[in-house]
Specification:
- The protein is mainly alpha-helical.
- The protein contains 7 helices and no strands.
- The protein is globular.
- The two termini are 36 Å apart.
- The protein has one domain.
Length: 200
């Protein structure tokens, strides 16, 4: 579990480096930046990445929790995918704010919304890319989830060649994730003049 956490933190650091370098106009795939040591280079990006997702997906999470425990009617759980999609729609801005050390702009949702409206079409393309990444993540984890709930044979049939299938899908998920981070950085590079939020 510790090894998995370290690898995840490393990837989070890589993702933020990709966003920052692409936003600065670099075409090269960056490495993990450790100038500030392991805390600033590895652990801090992990918390920022998790924080960006937590803020973006908070409405869906709250709706699910309240619906599950009866605070809201059960049928409201049917809206969870809708709120999750809305959360992913706000994820590019959240990732940009955390990548540029400007999470305080989250307190200005009006400026965030104005930025999205001013750059709607390119922002929509970024959102669709993130949905593709989310879909690849679901496919990569479906076999494992089926096995955990006692449907191992179904998981095997789904995965086809087992570990080979999962390895290929996981590699595709990583590739799509890096491509999505590049698109987020390029989105900022080419459309920052239309931004209402202050990133730098």
């Amino acid at each position: 579990m510790i090894a998995s956490l370290i690898v995840t933190a490393w990837f989070c650091s890589l993702f933020f480096s990709v966003i920052q370098d692409c936003a600065a106009g670099s075409d090269d795939l960056p490495g993990v930046k450790l100038e500030g040591g392991w805390v600033d280079g590895i652990l801090k990006p992990l918390f920022k990445f998790v924080g960006a997702f937590a803020i973006a997906l908070a409405p869906a999470a709250v709706l699910t929790i309240f619906g599950t425990f009866g605070v809201l009617p059960k049928y409201t759980l049917l809206l969870t995918p809708v709120w999750a999609a809305v959360g992913i729609f706000g994820l590019p801005v959240c990732l940009l704010l955390f990548a540029f050390e400007a999470p305080g702009m989250l307190l200005r949702p009006d400026l965030m919304l104005l930025t999205i409206i001013r750059t709607f079409l390119p922002y929509l393309a970024v959102w669709l890319m993130l949905l593709l990444v989310a879909f690849s993540y679901v496919v990569a984890t479906s076999a494992e989830l089926l096995a955990r709930i006692g449907l191992g044979s179904l998981a095997f049939n789904f995965s086809g060649t087992g570990l080979v299938f999962q390895g290929v899908v996981s590699a595709a998920e990583l590739y799509l994730s890096i491509a999505a981070m590049r698109i987020i950085g390029l989105y900022y590079l080419h459309f920052k003049q239309r931004f209402a939020i202050i990133m730098e």
